[in-house]
Task: inverse folding
């Protein structure tokens, strides 16, 4: 049996979303381990540059093209994915844990009576033993569980294909293979009137005011920075460092930053070269969003704050004192250079 991996490719306004590139990249690594192929499932209308997705890791693109699929609608998209799974019989199916993926994957899983692990932060291939039975080549679906207090590895050995949604930004896009082309195969799905009951009259996408995922330096503000003067200093420092500003959930809830800036389990996952945690205690729900940062500097007035356990550099002090010193120091460095 071929153990191919199908990746649902998500498009917005004709543009392939980063999470799909991340999934193709991961699928390529997993497929290598299984000796299998990566099948990208592209659903839409007039989608461009499909063979080029070979560069990210797709061996074949299954293209379902129909005007009715120009914009996402639950019923027709679910029918397409279900039909594609029944026809191509993949061993693993991956979706981004986006609004679309979180709507689509459970519909497909429930229709086909399959297991589904939501919001994975890592995927691996490995064996799983249950008593005397050894299940080989399982998709190990790894995600925080119990409010983020444990990291669970979930398998669904009796349910094939294994299905998972994966958080945006947790998987790095590996180097692309320039010039590698994927085969494109058209796959036709017909819809009944009932499946097209809803009509989208208008779609407006709220643009994000910040790109935390792509930022090289991110400053994270926590409740220790819940003060207008401190926030002003943080934005001043960010300007000097060409950094983006994100924050913990409570500081967002307190209205100091827009929701797009939330970092963590229910926010964005970042992977900057440098993360500076300012007045953040370091609860697991925040840490899962920053654990891929290359270097972490933490500033906190509590020397026992858990953030110090994951920080590479620790500054114990009050932000009101430390921030002006940092700004002065960086201004000095910039002047000299
Ligand atoms: C299901 C669920 C999902 C969640 N998702 C997220 C998420 O996505 N992201 C997230 O961040 N949280 C999330 N949380 C909340 C999380 O559990 C923590 O409550 C939160 O991360 C704490 O935020 P904080 O560190 O800013 O605040 P606090 O825990 O209150 O920490 C404030 C820190 O600031 C320090 N401090 C105070 N004043 C100063 C000062 N003047 N100078 C220096 N340091 C100072 C304190 O010593 C303290 O360590 C979630 C919780 C749940 C249950």
Result:
């Amino acid at each position: 049996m071929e153990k191919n991996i199908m990746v649902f490719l998500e498009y917005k306004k004709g543009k392939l979303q980063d999470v799909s590139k991340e999934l193709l990249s991961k699928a390529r690594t997993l497929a290598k381990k299984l000796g299998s192929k990566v099948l990208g499932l592209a659903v839409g209308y007039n989608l461009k540059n499909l063979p080029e997705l070979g560069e990210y890791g797709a061996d074949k693109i299954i293209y379902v093209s129909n005007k009715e699929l120009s914009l996402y609608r639950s019923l027709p998209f679910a029918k397409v994915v279900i039909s594609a799974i029944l026809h191509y019989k993949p061993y693993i199916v991956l979706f981004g844990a986006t609004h679309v993926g979180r709507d689509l994957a459970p519909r497909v899983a429930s229709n086909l009576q399959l297991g589904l692990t939501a919001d994975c932060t890592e995927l691996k291939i490995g064996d799983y033993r249950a008593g005397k039975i050894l299940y080989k080549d399982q998709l190990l679906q790894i995600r925080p569980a119990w409010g983020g207090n444990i990291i669970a590895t979930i398998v669904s050995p009796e349910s094939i294909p294994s299905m998972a949604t994966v958080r945006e930004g947790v998987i790095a896009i590996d180097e692309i293979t320039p010039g590698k082309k994927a085969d494109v195969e058209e796959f036709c799905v017909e819809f009944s009137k009932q499946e097209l009951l809803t009509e989208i009259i208008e779609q407006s996408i709220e643009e994000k005011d910040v790109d935390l995922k792509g930022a090289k330096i991110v400053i994270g503000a926590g409740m220790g920075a819940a003060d207008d003067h401190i926030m002003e200093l943080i934005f001043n420092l960010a300007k000097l460092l060409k950094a983006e500003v994100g924050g913990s959930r409570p500081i967002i809830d307190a209205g100091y930053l827009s929701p797009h800036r939330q970092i963590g389990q229910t926010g964005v996952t970042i992977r900057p070269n440098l993360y500076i945690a300012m007045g953040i205690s370091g609860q697991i729900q925040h840490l899962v969003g920053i654990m891929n940062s290359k270097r972490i500097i933490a500033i906190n007035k509590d020397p026992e704050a858990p953030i110090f356990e994951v920080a590479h550099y620790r500054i114990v002090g009050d932000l009101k004192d430390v921030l002006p010193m940092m700004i002065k120091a960086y201004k000095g460095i910039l002047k000299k250079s």
Remarks:
- Residues 147, 222-224, 248-251, 262-267, 279-281, 283, 285-286, 299-302, 305, 318-320 surround flavin-adenine dinucleotide (CB under 6 Å).
- The first strand starts at residue 5 and ends at 9.
- The chain has a mean pLDDT of 95.
- The CA atoms of residues 31 and 37 lie 6 Å apart.
